[in-house]
Amino acid sequence: VSEEVVRQEIRRAAVARRTTLPPVAVGRPRELKAAERDLLSALVARPQEALDALEWLEDADFEGLTTTRIFSEARLLRDLPAERIPTTLLERLSEEETALLALIAAPGEAALTPLTPLACARTLRRLRYERERAVTQREIRQLQDEDAVRHAGRIVHLQTRKMDLARKIEDLAN
After folding, report:
1. Cα 169 from Cα 130, distance rounded (Å)
2. Which parts of the chain register pLDDT below 50?
3. Least enclosed by CB within 10 Å: which of 46, 70, 111, 174?
Protein backbone atom coordinates (compact mmCIF):
# COMPACT_ATOMS: atom_id res chain seq x y z
CA VAL A 1 0.00 0.00 0.00
CA SER A 2 1.53 3.28 -1.06
CA GLU A 3 1.69 6.35 1.14
CA GLU A 4 -0.63 8.24 -1.20
CA VAL A 5 -3.29 5.52 -0.96
CA VAL A 6 -3.16 5.73 2.82
CA ARG A 7 -3.42 9.52 2.71
CA GLN A 8 -6.44 9.26 0.42
CA GLU A 9 -8.07 6.84 2.87
CA ILE A 10 -7.47 9.26 5.71
CA ARG A 11 -8.93 12.16 3.76
CA ARG A 12 -11.93 10.04 2.76
CA ALA A 13 -12.58 8.95 6.35
CA ALA A 14 -12.21 12.49 7.63
CA VAL A 15 -14.56 13.91 4.99
CA ALA A 16 -17.16 11.25 5.67
CA ARG A 17 -17.50 12.51 9.21
CA ARG A 18 -17.76 16.23 8.38
CA THR A 19 -17.09 18.76 5.69
CA THR A 20 -15.00 21.24 7.71
CA LEU A 21 -12.26 20.89 10.24
CA PRO A 22 -13.06 22.03 13.78
CA PRO A 23 -11.40 25.42 14.36
CA VAL A 24 -9.47 24.12 17.36
CA ALA A 25 -7.96 21.29 15.33
CA VAL A 26 -6.67 23.61 12.62
CA GLY A 27 -4.47 25.48 15.08
CA ARG A 28 -3.25 22.44 16.95
CA PRO A 29 -0.40 21.24 14.70
CA ARG A 30 1.57 24.35 15.60
CA GLU A 31 1.20 23.45 19.30
CA LEU A 32 2.56 19.96 18.81
CA LYS A 33 6.14 19.10 19.54
CA ALA A 34 8.08 18.10 16.42
CA ALA A 35 8.43 14.55 17.77
CA GLU A 36 4.64 14.28 18.21
CA ARG A 37 3.97 15.61 14.71
CA ASP A 38 6.53 13.34 13.06
CA LEU A 39 5.34 10.28 14.98
CA LEU A 40 1.73 11.00 13.97
CA SER A 41 2.83 11.33 10.37
CA ALA A 42 4.71 8.03 10.63
CA LEU A 43 1.54 6.30 11.88
CA VAL A 44 0.17 6.96 8.40
CA ALA A 45 3.27 6.66 6.23
CA ARG A 46 5.20 3.96 8.12
CA PRO A 47 2.73 2.44 10.61
CA GLN A 48 4.80 -0.57 11.66
CA GLU A 49 7.85 1.55 12.46
CA ALA A 50 5.64 3.99 14.35
CA LEU A 51 4.02 1.21 16.38
CA ASP A 52 7.41 -0.27 17.21
CA ALA A 53 8.48 3.14 18.52
CA LEU A 54 5.23 3.56 20.49
CA GLU A 55 5.73 0.14 22.07
CA TRP A 56 9.15 1.28 23.33
CA LEU A 57 7.52 4.17 25.19
CA GLU A 58 5.89 3.99 28.61
CA ASP A 59 2.56 5.56 29.61
CA ALA A 60 4.42 8.25 31.58
CA ASP A 61 6.15 9.37 28.36
CA PHE A 62 2.76 10.52 27.01
CA GLU A 63 1.72 12.61 30.02
CA GLY A 64 0.92 16.17 29.07
CA LEU A 65 1.02 15.59 25.31
CA THR A 66 -1.81 16.81 23.09
CA THR A 67 -1.65 13.49 21.24
CA THR A 68 -1.79 11.11 24.23
CA ARG A 69 -5.11 9.55 23.28
CA ILE A 70 -4.15 9.09 19.62
CA PHE A 71 -0.95 7.30 20.59
CA SER A 72 -2.78 5.20 23.19
CA GLU A 73 -5.31 4.09 20.59
CA ALA A 74 -2.54 3.34 18.10
CA ARG A 75 -0.74 1.14 20.64
CA LEU A 76 -3.88 -1.00 20.89
CA LEU A 77 -3.58 -1.83 17.17
CA ARG A 78 -0.21 -3.58 17.41
CA ASP A 79 -1.65 -6.95 16.31
CA LEU A 80 -3.16 -5.61 13.08
CA PRO A 81 -1.41 -5.81 9.73
CA ALA A 82 0.47 -2.54 9.11
CA GLU A 83 -1.64 -1.59 6.09
CA ARG A 84 -4.84 -1.62 8.22
CA ILE A 85 -3.49 0.51 11.06
CA PRO A 86 -4.14 4.02 9.64
CA THR A 87 -7.76 3.33 8.65
CA THR A 88 -8.59 1.43 11.83
CA LEU A 89 -7.00 4.15 13.95
CA LEU A 90 -9.11 6.82 12.23
CA GLU A 91 -12.25 4.84 12.98
CA ARG A 92 -11.42 4.91 16.70
CA LEU A 93 -10.59 8.59 16.99
CA SER A 94 -12.84 11.54 17.73
CA GLU A 95 -13.63 13.99 14.95
CA GLU A 96 -11.08 16.45 16.27
CA GLU A 97 -8.37 13.79 16.53
CA THR A 98 -9.18 12.52 13.04
CA ALA A 99 -8.96 16.05 11.67
CA LEU A 100 -5.61 16.57 13.39
CA LEU A 101 -4.18 13.33 12.01
CA ALA A 102 -5.52 14.03 8.53
CA LEU A 103 -4.09 17.54 8.59
CA ILE A 104 -0.65 16.35 9.68
CA ALA A 105 -0.61 13.48 7.18
CA ALA A 106 -1.77 15.70 4.30
CA PRO A 107 0.67 16.06 1.40
CA GLY A 108 3.04 18.94 1.96
CA GLU A 109 2.54 18.99 5.73
CA ALA A 110 5.43 16.69 6.62
CA ALA A 111 8.60 18.25 7.95
CA LEU A 112 11.42 18.62 5.45
CA THR A 113 13.59 16.33 7.57
CA PRO A 114 11.22 14.38 9.79
CA LEU A 115 12.58 12.44 12.72
CA THR A 116 12.46 8.67 12.46
CA PRO A 117 9.79 7.08 14.64
CA LEU A 118 12.45 5.79 17.04
CA ALA A 119 14.06 9.24 17.24
CA CYS A 120 10.59 10.66 18.01
CA ALA A 121 10.15 8.12 20.80
CA ARG A 122 13.57 8.93 22.23
CA THR A 123 12.74 12.63 22.14
CA LEU A 124 9.42 12.09 23.91
CA ARG A 125 11.19 10.03 26.59
CA ARG A 126 13.82 12.76 26.99
CA LEU A 127 11.12 15.41 27.37
CA ARG A 128 9.49 13.28 30.07
CA TYR A 129 12.78 13.05 31.97
CA GLU A 130 13.24 16.81 31.64
CA ARG A 131 9.76 17.36 33.12
CA GLU A 132 10.54 14.97 35.97
CA ARG A 133 13.87 16.71 36.61
CA ALA A 134 12.14 20.09 36.81
CA VAL A 135 9.58 18.73 39.28
CA THR A 136 12.39 17.20 41.35
CA GLN A 137 14.29 20.50 41.37
CA ARG A 138 11.18 22.38 42.53
CA GLU A 139 10.69 19.87 45.35
CA ILE A 140 14.35 20.25 46.41
CA ARG A 141 14.00 24.03 46.42
CA GLN A 142 10.78 23.84 48.43
CA LEU A 143 12.33 21.54 51.06
CA GLN A 144 15.42 23.75 51.29
CA ASP A 145 13.21 26.81 51.80
CA GLU A 146 11.22 25.07 54.54
CA ASP A 147 14.06 23.59 56.58
CA ALA A 148 17.09 22.12 54.82
CA VAL A 149 18.45 20.50 57.98
CA ARG A 150 15.19 18.76 58.86
CA HIS A 151 14.72 17.52 55.26
CA ALA A 152 18.39 16.68 54.58
CA GLY A 153 17.76 12.98 53.92
CA ARG A 154 14.93 13.67 51.51
CA ILE A 155 16.94 16.39 49.76
CA VAL A 156 19.88 14.00 49.24
CA HIS A 157 17.49 11.40 47.84
CA LEU A 158 15.98 13.97 45.44
CA GLN A 159 19.42 15.21 44.37
CA THR A 160 20.39 11.63 43.56
CA ARG A 161 17.18 11.27 41.56
CA LYS A 162 17.93 14.52 39.73
CA MET A 163 21.44 13.33 38.80
CA ASP A 164 20.01 10.00 37.61
CA LEU A 165 17.54 11.87 35.40
CA ALA A 166 20.36 14.06 34.04
CA ARG A 167 22.28 10.90 33.07
CA LYS A 168 19.22 9.44 31.37
CA ILE A 169 18.67 12.68 29.45
CA GLU A 170 22.30 12.69 28.33
CA ASP A 171 22.09 9.03 27.27
CA LEU A 172 19.02 9.78 25.13
CA ALA A 173 20.73 12.79 23.55
CA ASN A 174 23.58 10.59 22.27
Report:
1. 7
2. 1, 18-27
3. 174
